[in-house]
């Protein structure tokens, strides 16, 4: 716009005062510094004299600033949109969106937590394994059946065989003292005796001997290899029925610390062993057994484990070969299981039971031993 | 795709200098560097691709303006800053739409950026106001104003583009449009 024209407009404005459109143009030129010094001065004069014009200038200034900000923001947005168009959003989104599979979603969400948990698991597995490995090396189970100087016996046998060969016309009755020994106890008055299977395993013939030294021939009626239980039956004419069984079976499991005792035949006379239940589980956590703290020796296997009131808690069955003074006992409920496995009427009316009251309850230990010793037998095993 | 994006991640210093120097290349690199991170965040927190675009662009604009104003202090990684801003904006949007915000799944550390976001929101009100004023203006006024003020076309260009017989006519037209726009803009 030529200066001449502009000046004309000025005069027009000043004269007519309100040609809004033209005024706007001049205000904008003024704000953008496009007016020459002369025009600027004239306009500022106008501004001072007319508050309405001044107000227009101020508001237009604000408007232009807003517009400028809007313009720069719009340009930036356009730029960003342009950049955005270059990105392959589809494939990226397919990669990153929550996976339909919950497992992968969980994995993504809890990556670090899972990693920590996994390493913890691995660590604990390693330590548990090493502990078990160690204890495997240490502990070995030793059955408590008595091996009677086998080598010596076999030598004796050999000698006897030679002898009998030498005097073949005088057949001598075998007086074999037995190769193995263990303990057993009566579960009925008519001659059923319970012991450990490992005591009688591989036996050619079986005898039991009571505390008076009388021997009776027995035969195996039932064996349970899983629980290491065997039931024998006295098949000897000379055997007279026992009076009623003094002890009863304890149904519930025993608590740690409960006083228990056992009577057994680690030697030719009955030996009392006393102690307490030291663990609810047996060898390497075997839940079918207790660990008891009773000194036991070869020959104690199959002996009854009784509590103070004469309740049958279990059967002594073995001991860990590294731990001194500890033994394992099969829990009493497996005695009941074994008894149920044989024909019920064969045991007779006076069998061992869980419901009767123990005759030993309230007696002193010495009296209790007196009562039960007739019911505990030495098992003699012959296998030539 | 992912790899090519990651390989061109600019250093934080590069970004700041680039923005101050108005470098389009830097803006391009910046935008592509952290888009995937924000897309993942939004997609996994009840949003879609469009939400991610809006939120991310807003965050980039906040960062851009902050750098341009010269008061951006690099106290943390740019990545963390952008993530935090996006997170803040998205949480607000979720609560505005009364969508379930529930437990937000996070992928990065979070800074406190409430001030920056609120400051931006105030400015954004002006932006929205101008935008809606322009939308109400109608054609050809809207385009004339946009061409002149945003795309910086000269009156000569505008005159030719819209087929006015001379620039004075175009100018008159522009001022007519401007007057109407101001009227709309200043409406309470």
UniProtKB/TrEMBL annotation, chain B:
<keyword id="KW-0804">Transcription</keyword>
<dbReference type="InterPro" id="IPR014284">
    <property type="entry name" value="RNA_pol_sigma-70_dom"/>
</dbReference>
<keyword id="KW-0238">DNA-binding</keyword>
<keyword id="KW-0731">Sigma factor</keyword>
<dbReference type="InterPro" id="IPR039425">
    <property type="entry name" value="RNA_pol_sigma-70-like"/>
</dbReference>
<dbReference type="GO" id="GO:0003677">
    <property type="term" value="F:DNA binding"/>
</dbReference>
<feature type="domain" description="RNA polymerase sigma-70 region 2">
    <location>
        <begin position="30"/>
        <end position="98"/>
    </location>
</feature>
<dbReference type="InterPro" id="IPR013324">
    <property type="entry name" value="RNA_pol_sigma_r3/r4-like"/>
</dbReference>
<keyword id="KW-0805">Transcription regulation</keyword>
<dbReference type="InterPro" id="IPR013325">
    <property type="entry name" value="RNA_pol_sigma_r2"/>
</dbReference>
<dbReference type="GO" id="GO:0006352">
    <property type="term" value="P:DNA-templated transcription initiation"/>
</dbReference>
<dbReference type="InterPro" id="IPR036388">
    <property type="entry name" value="WH-like_DNA-bd_sf"/>
</dbReference>
<comment type="similarity">
    <text>Belongs to the sigma-70 factor family. ECF subfamily.</text>
</comment>
<dbReference type="InterPro" id="IPR007627">
    <property type="entry name" value="RNA_pol_sigma70_r2"/>
</dbReference>
<protein>
    <submittedName>
        <fullName>Sigma-70 family RNA polymerase sigma factor</fullName>
    </submittedName>
</protein>
<dbReference type="Pfam" id="PF04542">
    <property type="entry name" value="Sigma70_r2"/>
</dbReference>
<dbReference type="GO" id="GO:0016987">
    <property type="term" value="F:sigma factor activity"/>
</dbReference>
């Amino acid at each position: 716009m030529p200066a001449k024209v502009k000046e004309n407009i000025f005069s027009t404005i000043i004269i007519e005062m309100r040609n809004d459109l033209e005024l706007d143009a001049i205000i904008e030129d003024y704000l953008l510094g496009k007016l020459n010094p002369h025009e600027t001065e004239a306009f500022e004069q106008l501004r001072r004299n007319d508050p309405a014009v001044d107000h227009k200038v101020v508001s237009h200034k604000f408007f232009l600033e807003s517009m400028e900000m809007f313009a720069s923001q719009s340009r930036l947005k356009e730029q960003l949109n342009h950049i955005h168009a270059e990105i392959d959003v589809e494939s990226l989104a397919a990669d990153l969106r929550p996976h339909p599979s919950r497992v992968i979603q969980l994995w993504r969400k809890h990556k670090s937590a899972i990693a920590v948990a996994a390493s913890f698991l691995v660590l604990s597995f390693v330590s548990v394994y090493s502990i078990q490995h160690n204890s495997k090396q240490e502990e070995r189970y030793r059955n408590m059946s008595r091996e009677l100087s086998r080598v010596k016996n076999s030598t004796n046998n050999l000698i006897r065989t030679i002898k009998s060969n030498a005097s073949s016309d005088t057949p001598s009755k075998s007086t074999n003292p037995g190769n193995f020994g263990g303990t057993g106890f009566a579960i009925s008055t008519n001659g059923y005796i319970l012991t450990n299977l490992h005591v009688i395993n591989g036996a050619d013939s079986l005898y039991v001997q009571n505390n008076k030294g009388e021997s009776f021939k027995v035969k195996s009626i039932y064996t349970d290899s899983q629980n290491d239980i065997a039931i024998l039956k006295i098949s000897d004419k000379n055997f007279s029925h026992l009076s009623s069984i003094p002890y009863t079976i304890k149904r519930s499991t025993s608590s740690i610390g409960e006083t228990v005792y056992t009577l057994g035949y680690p030697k030719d006379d009955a030996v009392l062993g006393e102690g307490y239940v030291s663990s609810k589980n047996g060898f390497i956590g075997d839940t079918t057994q207790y660990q008891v703290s009773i000194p036991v020796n070869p020959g104690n296997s199959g002996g009854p484990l009784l509590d103070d009131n004469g309740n049958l808690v279990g059967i002594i069955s073995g001991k860990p070969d590294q731990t001194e003074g500890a033994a394992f006992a099969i829990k009493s409920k497996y005695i009941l299981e074994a008894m149920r496995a044989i024909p019920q009427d064969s045991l007779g009316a006076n069998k061992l039971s869980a419901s009767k009251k123990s005759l030993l309850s309230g007696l002193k230990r010495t009296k209790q031993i007196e009562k039960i010793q007739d019911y505990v037998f030495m098992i003699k095993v012959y296998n030539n | 795709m992912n790899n090519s994006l990651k390989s061109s991640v600019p250093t934080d210093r590069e970004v700041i200098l680039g923005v101050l120097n108005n470098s389009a290349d830097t803006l391009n690199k910046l935008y592509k560097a952290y888009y995937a991170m924000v897309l993942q965040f939004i997609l996994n927190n009840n949003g879609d691709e469009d939400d991610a675009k809006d939120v991310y662009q807003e965050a980039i604009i906040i960062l851009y303006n902050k750098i341009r104003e010269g008061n951006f202090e690099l106290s943390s990684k740019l990545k963390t800053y952008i993530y935090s801003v996006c997170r803040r904006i998205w949480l607000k949007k979720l609560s505005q739409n009364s969508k379930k915000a529930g437990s937000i799944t996070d992928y990065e550390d979070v800074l406190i950026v409430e001030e920056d976001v609120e400051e931006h929101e105030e400015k954004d009100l002006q932006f929205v106001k101008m935008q809606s004023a322009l939308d109400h203006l109608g054609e050809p006024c809207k385009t004339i104003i946009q061409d002149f003020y945003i795309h910086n076309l000269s009156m000569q260009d505008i005159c030719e583009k819209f087929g006015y017989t001379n620039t004075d006519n175009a100018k008159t037209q522009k001022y007519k449009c401007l007057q109407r726009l101001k009227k709309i803009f200043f409406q309470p």
